[in-house]
Amino acid sequence: MNKILTIIFGSLIVSAAYNFFLIPHGILSSGLSGIAIMFGLITPINTGIINFLLNLPLLIIGVFKLGKQFIFYTILSVVVISLGLFVIPIKQISTEPILSSLFGGVLTGLGIGLIFRVSGSSGGFDILAMLLNKKKDFPLGSILSAMNAVVVIISGFIFSWDAALNTMVTIYATGKVIDTIHTKHIKLTLMIVTDKGKEMKEKLLSCVYRGITLIDGEGAYSGENRKILMTVITRYQLTEVKSLIKEIDPNAFVNITETTEVMGSFHRN
What we know:
Number of strands: 4
Structural class: alpha+beta
């Protein structure tokens, strides 16, 4: 319940940041939400409706391709953000575009960072990047940066290059705050020692789309046989994986280390 409340709270912060700081000045956010804001500015359709419709195909694909808990939290976030954009009135808090882009970016980063901390996402490019990363082991950060660059260029051509520069400020501020709250680009290696190796393997494979290596082990003191499961995950998935491990074996020994680099397949074949 705490995780759900955190996602709802973070999503409402994002909606408020858009309607109070970004949209009144024609400033786009990062990701698919930025494209939704753009269409909301040039058409009579509400930004919340557009945001939901743009995310819907990715959410449907994500249900079948990504972790169940992750996609559930993401769907919740997308719905709350879309409803928030529809319900919260668009009101100009500051008359200064640069201040609005900066503060709007900080608030957006705060909201998204809270969502990331409980293993969800705000949808959009995050889902698309993870789907691409599942097929090809591209770095998520590079994929997201390339997609956001497209948003900035579109903003410059459709609105003005001042708006594009303000959009860059917003995206930069959002990224910095997200990194402070939840460093999403970090990969982690998990070594799980358990006497319920089969159950643990089946649970992780059914809920997390990363590959797992199973190793036979023996307790040095007890002499009892153990299974050692090794896998590499992103910080997106850490909260979910820890819950799954405790569900199967509360007494499992788990070593979590930060991974500098991954070679070979990072996803489940």
